[in-house]
């Protein structure tokens, strides 16, 4: 991950049903909350998804935005081996470099403008550390919930470096789905779109999109305007389904960088707790118990054999002492 572990000591257990906030058909700004990534100096991240008013954008279910972070002050990214189920992690960097290892045997570097996507499926474990050459770390860690029919697929890892495309003077990198005539070859389990868009100062950009998709614009730098909504770095402008045309405008005084995250509504309820996605409380309990058994054996059946280079792994936090009631 570029922060693929939920670092909270007491993570909330969430049932996500995709309901939104604000008037029907109108965009809304999703704020963020600050979360320390852990460690003695605690690298901070800005978490804008999930939240009480909006759990999902399409199948996108988790958005952490971080940096620019001076690793000499915070220690950078230091996330030991930890598990995931029922999701895909999407790692995207603007500055810096992350070393990734997982229990499929994948060993890769996350670099700016290059997509690393890890499918947890039935279960995987991985670690993420910023490299010694990294002085500033800046990027986003994103999760995609797998639909019920595919959530127990075999774990996998994929890398893709999208070409940069000029769109009316804007620099665009399409890393998932199709946008501006560019299509990513990365295979997904729901219909999604993901792209980095770099606007000149004050530039306006229009785009054709699927009216059946929800869309969110994560502001990275500058200030972003879309349909009258204004977002600062770390905030998301969310657009519900129903429009095939979206427009954005950048900060008049400086370049604006944006991540577009969109997709067809998942149409399912999911339970998110720590790094697990399931469908019921009892299922998450089983995932947690399985992880702790395999920590004792350095890997096992569900989460795979741990790399020899892992000196330790993260224990799962204690579960809440009440059962979660589903809603929606």
Automatic annotation (TrEMBL):
Residues in coiled coil: none
CDD domains assigned: cupin_pirin_N
Domain Pirin N-terminal: residue ranges: 45-144
Domain Pirin C-terminal: from-to ranges: 195-294
InterPro entries documented for this protein: Pirin, Pirin_C_dom, Pirin_N_dom, RmlC-like_jellyroll, RmlC_Cupin_sf
Family the entry assigns: Belongs to the pirin family.
Protein name: Pirin domain protein
